Amino acid sequence: MQSDKMRQREQKTGWILVAPALIILLLVFAYPILRAFWLSLFTQNLGTELKLVFSGFANYSRMLGDGRFWQTLSNTAVFTIASVVLELILGMGIALVLNQSFAGRGIVRTISLLPWALPTALMGVAWAWIFNDQYGVINDILIRLGLIKNSISWLGDPTLAMMAVITADVWKTTPFVSLLLLAGLQSIPGDLYEAHAIDGASSWQSFRQVTLPLLMPQIVIALLFRFAQAFGIFDLIQVMTGGGPAGATETVSIYIYSTVMRYLDFGYGAALVVCTFLLLVAAVAIAAYLLSRARVNAAGGN
Question: Looking at residue 201, which CATH number applies to its domain?
Answer without folding.
Answer: 1.10.3720.10
